[in-house]
Amino acid sequence: MPADHAGMGIQKHRRLLGVIGGLATVAVLAAGGVFAAFTATTTNPGNSLSAGSVAISDNDGANVAMYTSGAVGDLAPGDPAVVRCLKVTYTGSLDAAVKLYVSSGVTNGGAFDLTIERGTQTTGAFPSCGDFAASSTAYSGTLAGLGTDWAGGVDGKAAAAAWNQNDNVAYRFTLTAKDDSVANNHTSVQSTGSHTFTWEARSN
Amino acid sequence: MRRIAFLVGLGAAATAPVTFARLPARPEPHGMALSVLVNRSGPLDVRPAGRLAGFGDLRPGRAPAAGSTTVVNETGQPLRLRFRAMPPADRADRLVRVRVTSGAHTLFSGTLDVLRGWQPPRLRLAPGGRAPLSVRAWLPGEVRTGYESRRLDVALELVPRWEPAP
For B2, which of A32, A96, A181, B24 is 20 to 30 Å away at the CA? Predict the structure, then answer.
């Protein structure tokens, strides 16, 4: 091989090696550029809001009355008391206050005594009282004297304690006909008319 | 010149694996946090009520979240029990399998997204009657992704459908 040809071959070889070396350097620098930067992030995921609930229900089935004159019959003083139990359950997510009151417009309510006790009950279906155990008295007076709205209502729990989700209270209603010594005061049937007991819950 | 190029190339070849090897491994994601709640209502008592089952780190193919309670018809009327998982739905609903049983009877078996709808009232309760209620929820082994770090609070809503008294 002529000397100038050999020199050109070496030069080409060197140039090729230079290109390879340069590419390797660029690759190393590029890799450094990708992996050399430390990073850190922080996130605050899953934000959401919901309004709480206030919900209350009882065990009267499909709004079955605790008592009706048709089922009980006409009461006289000294007759066995009408005793019925109803359980109220709070299902709202917010703590609440509960009051019990009767609908307005009860006629002849003064002719009947009513006692409402709070307690617990684990046996017996509505409206029977099963193993009802009284813990406090919510009201004792005439049917006419029971409040007819939130302001005049009686506390659902003793000392107006708050209701939490899944709390329940059983109520025992005891009704009797009041004695009345006034002559000719009962010459006809005295009906209360249909009335409704309401348990109202309000969030605290 | 040739030696320099060779050394540079050798250095690049030697450092590249080390560079890749030193990259931190991805941490393993958390599993699904799943809880099942059953609350009482006026007509239907639940004993015990509240959180029935829970699992903090549910993963595919692992043990299910499971729990049992007793449902009591507090009313004076016979009823059939309707139930559903309360909305809102979650995009992971289709991954979660749920089975609701009462004793030997299966009341529901399917995915959580189906349970979000009302289920046929198969369980009958006489006045004052009671029945066991069990819930199992799990992620099948074939689930690959979509459950990681998700939190599902499933509230089972129980509602009576009144039956005519005998």
Answer: A32
